[in-house]
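Blinded run. Sample ID left blank on purpose so nobody reads anything into the name before looking at the predicted structure. Input follows.
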Amino acid sequence: MKWFKRFWWLAVLLTAGLATGVWATWETDRQLGQLIERWAPDPSTFWELDGMQVHMRDTGPRDDALPIVLLHGMSSSLHTYEAWQTSLQTKRRVISVDLPGFGLTGPSQQGDYRIDAYTRFVLRLLDSLDLNRVILVGNALGGEIAWQTAVLAPDRVRKLVLIDSDGYQPAVLSMPMAFQLASMRGLRWISERILPRSLVAASVHNVFGDPSKASEDKIDRYFELNLRVGNRRALFQRMDQAQFGASAPLIRRVQQPTLVMWGQLDKMISPEQGTLFCRDIPKCKLVTFPSLGHLPQEEDPQSTLTELQAFLAAP
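Blinded prediction complete.
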């Protein structure tokens, strides 16, 4: 019986430890109204589309014949392009958007986070804004949405910019802990209710080539926006619905002039995949950044913007 008593006490201690851990990291959802003041200042607007209030920023001259549309990655938001948009909007019309399931836009009513649902969303957004042709820019998940939109509707996309983009079968080097938890179905009930800020901080550090650039303000942003009502469940649904690399053969159909930008210290998607894009896309230029990680446009806006502007200016 001694072994049974020891086992019983061990089970009690483990259960108590788990309960304490859950209690200590419990985070309630944040309502949209709680987040708007800090994360949606002017020029943010909300655009009704597909039953959602889509958070977006539409800035710069309205007579620009070829607006630039910026698409962020998974668990990110339009803020990742804030420095780019501020600089570009002096001469170009620039549109950034929180994709369904992320940022202040929040979850899709249909719960559909497959790539084809996102490409349809982008095309409907362009229609609603009366944009016939644009330059699409995408980072990670946003990159795959961008190139698949370019394949689906080539007449709507004039140029393409892919930043550490999804597309090929992933060779993941180091997945952030937040994404690892999201992929564990057995922990979903708990994961939808906890979100240690320390876990978010570790994940943000992981995507920067220089972790010191992951400021407290950036960590706050990722932390608070992922607590927006419905976003944690949307992330789990996206992970369940993702078919990484399944559409890679379609990359050869991209005909638009394409700039591929890659941080050589990307721990999430192997930098070798940048070479694959320019192997398969006929009109392609690859630019790499030796000291940057998965979010080059956010980590070093100035040097990455120089390369982007040169590409935009090319015939």
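Unblinding after everyone has recorded impressions. The chain has 13 helices and eight strands.
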